[in-house]
Amino acid sequence: MAKHSSLWMTKVLSHNLCTVLKVPHDPVALEEHFRDDDEGPVSNQGYMPYLNKFILEKVQDNFDKIEFNRMCWTLCVKKNLTKNPLFITEEDAFKIWVIFNFLSEDKYPLIIVPEEIEYLLKKLTEAMGVSWQQEQFENYKINFDDSKDGLSVWELIELVGNGQFSKGMDRQTVSMAINEVFNELILDVLKQGYMIKKGHRRKNWTERWFVLKPNIISYYVSEDLKDKKGDILLDENCCVESLPDKDGKKCLFLIKCFDKTFEISASDKKKKQEWIQAIHSTIHLLKLGSPPPHKEARQRRKELRKKLLAEQEELERQMKELQVANENKQQELEAVRKKLEEAASRAAEEEKKRLQTQVELQARFSTELEREKLIRQQMEEQVAQKSSELEQYLQRVRELEDMYLKLQEALEDERQARQDEETVRKLQARLLEEESAKRAELEKWHLEQQQAIQTTEAEKQELENQRVIKEQALQEALGQLQQLELERKQALEQYEGVKKKLEMAAKTTKSWKDKVAHHEGLIRLIEPGSKNPHLITNWGPAAFTQAELEEREKSWKEKKTTE
């Protein structure tokens, strides 16, 4: 009997589910499913496998979700709804129940977390037109049961129904706020209100109740939504424009769709701007393919909670690792403490040994101290001796610096003597050049004289006269040659004077060099470099080189050929 009664209730439930979900009902499949089950739907071949296989797998997205929620509400409300008197109606409780299903976490058993409770209470408070009391909610969170992650649906209904967050509000205001939040979150109502619409056929203006949803604007005779007059289908190609006042109508705007346009008049400029902005935002979301704002915000909040939960789990994991590491450290510290105790006992024994040896070491240290004092005294004497030697060394360095300055002066004198020698050599070279020119001229005249003697006898007298003239010229040239010889001797005398100066400078340099060598070679004497070999003439060392002499012979030959 119990089996048949349970089976009959299962058939009724299945038939109602199929009717609401718009799935074809197959009673034969239900009979076949439970035919060999002696214990009925509660066995391992119970109702859930049948529900998943023959009903839920066939569900399409064309059923009325509100009716489905209402059916589920009917099945569970009597058993679970609190018996305490509530400040809201059963219809309002049903809407809270549907909102709970929308905001709850995606895991069983269903709960609504404190963040979503705060979101719902804020929405209700805003809909009632009062300010949100954050401090009151924080106090509520403090008294919240830490063992629970959130509230069940029945606890949420009791929280809203007991009027804790709606004090001072009447039941009608609370009911209207619940209905407004229900329309927004469940029915996807983005905006609603009365406006005047221009007809397409009669061109008359009629007041309608407009309801804006993510892809449609529906308009009704009144706000009870019983008499629907039409729809405005929205897509990404629609647009909304503001119109100037006309025909006695103000606050006009136009909605352009693919095949129709709709002229609408709002009650005031503020309402007009709100409706234009809401419709424009809806069309923009359709272009982007985005869900309604409240659904997108819900998804972001869930993702944020998941992220925070993952971070919290990671933090807990790290805390556990730190705790394990801390325990390991404690064990290590305990081992170290034991080692320190052992080391302390060993140190005490060593301290005893140290005290025993301290007396012996003290006597040894006294002996070492006396010896150290003696060594220190000897070291002080050595330091005094070294200081005296250092003073003598510094005095010697100062003398050597003075000698170095004097040596530089002697070298400067030697350099000046060499410059004078070079001047005399240049003068000798000029005199020799003039002497060579005169000799060349005399040789030329002598050659011409011999040629003249060899010509003819007739010309002898004339040549004799010329010879006399040339003899006179030769005498004059000899006089000039003697003068040049005298000048050469004077130059040699000057050269001898310069040479003596050089010898004296060399002797001075040699004496300084000996002094430097005598002072242990602290500085190195700067000596003049070696000279290149010079030619030797009949009058002594030449003031020119072999290359200069060849150049001068070449120039003499060129002059001779030109004459």
Automatic annotation (TrEMBL):
<dbReference type="GO" id="GO:0030027">
    <property type="term" value="C:lamellipodium"/>
</dbReference>
<dbReference type="GO" id="GO:0005886">
    <property type="term" value="C:plasma membrane"/>
</dbReference>
<dbReference type="Pfam" id="PF00169">
    <property type="entry name" value="PH"/>
</dbReference>
<feature type="coiled-coil region">
    <location>
        <begin position="294"/>
        <end position="508"/>
    </location>
</feature>
<dbReference type="InterPro" id="IPR057836">
    <property type="entry name" value="EF-hand_SWAP70_N"/>
</dbReference>
<dbReference type="Pfam" id="PF25530">
    <property type="entry name" value="EF-hand_SWAP70_N"/>
</dbReference>
<dbReference type="InterPro" id="IPR057837">
    <property type="entry name" value="PH_SWAP70"/>
</dbReference>
<dbReference type="GO" id="GO:0005737">
    <property type="term" value="C:cytoplasm"/>
</dbReference>
<feature type="domain" description="PH">
    <location>
        <begin position="188"/>
        <end position="284"/>
    </location>
</feature>
<dbReference type="InterPro" id="IPR011993">
    <property type="entry name" value="PH-like_dom_sf"/>
</dbReference>
<dbReference type="InterPro" id="IPR001849">
    <property type="entry name" value="PH_domain"/>
</dbReference>
<keyword id="KW-0175">Coiled coil</keyword>
<dbReference type="GO" id="GO:0005634">
    <property type="term" value="C:nucleus"/>
</dbReference>
<protein>
    <submittedName>
        <fullName>Switch-associated protein 70 isoform X2</fullName>
    </submittedName>
</protein>
<dbReference type="GO" id="GO:0003677">
    <property type="term" value="F:DNA binding"/>
</dbReference>
